[in-house]
Write a structure and sequence with these properties.
Layout (H helix, E strand, L loop, with lengths): L2 H30 L5 E5 L6 H17 L3 E5 L6 H8 L7 E6 L1 H9 L11 E16 L9 H9 L7 E4 L5 H13 L4 E4 L3 H10 L4 E5 H9 L4 E5 L25 E9 L4 H14 L3 H9 L3 E2 L4 H22 L5
Parallel strand pairs: 1-2, 1-3, 5-6, 5-7
Antiparallel strand pairs: 3-9, 4-7, 4-8, 4-9, 4-10
Length: about 325
């Protein structure tokens, strides 16, 4: 008899016996979760694009899982406060985070001393919705029909003559415009505002006649002729705007900024919870009323597995860190 082989067989048998109760525990947890209200932290103010998307999914999750999914808005510091609430919560499936490209991507680039790591201190669950940003201008100040004409008009004035608007330092609009500046070789001055309404007013009055923001925020102004949509920031043309070119095809090769919304949990969230949420959200994402509503706000359904969300976070962090370093962009 081989004593080493015998010991290995005994160890394997012991591990199998020990794994059985553990598997049973996780299986039972999957069947009973959720047993009470689930809190979903939204790191922004009510009425924003992230909040709107979450409140579209939440009622359907309540219906299929039989428990309330309570939206808890925790705005502040560009999403830092809400993310920290989720990071510090118990990984028991009763606190989730509905993050986005700003709170869970850009912040990791512009804040040097975050009290958490966006790659390792959260459990990625599902990338739910993505969509392009849109480059819009005041048509009185920039009576142009394409990106090349816009760049030429900006360069015709002294550096810094024109301002651009954003929803705040470190917002998706801020970093998107900084990327535009770097790739187009133009100088624009940044004016941050505190609300989408204030941004819209700034573009319309000409105080800050250029803005790169979410489609949902700009299309009403475009429809009324108060803003002109020059380009979208996806790599391919947006299906609902087939006549609007991308910045990439307009000469800024490789330009891409994507708005996204996703579900995360605290680090150590049980696999059973992750798998059940992904399964249910993928079903919800196929409902015609959900698809049409997301399309109406300028997005498209993804409802990915966790690894796709993890890859998106890694990619965004690398991209924005490089931009922040080259542009010396800091939120502190």
């Amino acid at each position: 008899m081989n004593p080493i082989l015998d010991r290995r067989r005994m160890l394997s048998a012991a591990m199998s016996v020990g794994a059985a109760p553990l598997f049973a525990t996780f299986s039972a947890f999957a069947e009973t979760w959720p047993a009470r209200t689930v809190r979903v932290v939204e790191p922004g103010a009510p009425g924003g694009g992230n909040d709107t998307t979450l409140r579209l999914f939440a009622p359907h999750l309540e219906r299929v899982l039989g428990r309330q999914f309570l939206v808890e808005n925790r705005p502040g510091a560009g999403g830092r406060l809400g993310v920290e609430v989720a990071v510090r919560s118990a990984p028991d499936g009763y606190t989730l985070l509905f993050g986005n490209a700003g709170s869970n991507g850009i912040n990791g680039a512009i804040y040097r001393n975050l009290p958490y790591d966006l790659e390792t201190d959260l459990t990625p669950i599902s990338l739910l919705v993505t969509g392009p940003n849109a480059l819009v201008v005041n048509p009185r100040i920039f009576p142009v029909n394409h990106v090349a004409g816009l760049i030429a008009a900006i360069k015709a004035k002294p550096p810094g003559y024109y301002n651009y608007a954003s929803g705040g330092i470190g917002s998706s609009a801020h970093l998107s415009a900084e990327l535009f500046k770097q790739m187009a070789g133009v100088r624009l001055e940044h004016i941050p505002y505190k609300s989408a309404a204030a941004v819209g007013q700034a573009v319309i009055t000409g105080d800050a006649p250029l803005f790169i923001g979410n489609l949902i925020n700009v299309m009403p102004f475009v429809g009324r002729g108060e803003m002109k949509l020059v380009a979208v920031t996806s790599m391919t043309r947006w299906p609902d705007l087939p006549d609007i070119p991308t910045l990439d095809e307009s000469g800024l090769r490789g330009f891409e900024t994507i708005a996204w919304n996703a579900m995360f949990g605290p680090k150590g969230l049980p696999t059973a919870v992750v798998e059940r949420l992904v399964s249910e959200m993928q079903r919800i994402g196929q409902l015609p009323e959900v698809v049409s509503r997301v399309k109406a706000i300028g997005g498209q359904i993804v409802c990915s597995p966790p690894e796709v969300l993890a890859a998106r976070v890694r990619s965004d962090l690398a991209k924005w860190r490089d931009l922040a370093l080259r542009g010396n962009i800091r939120a502190e």
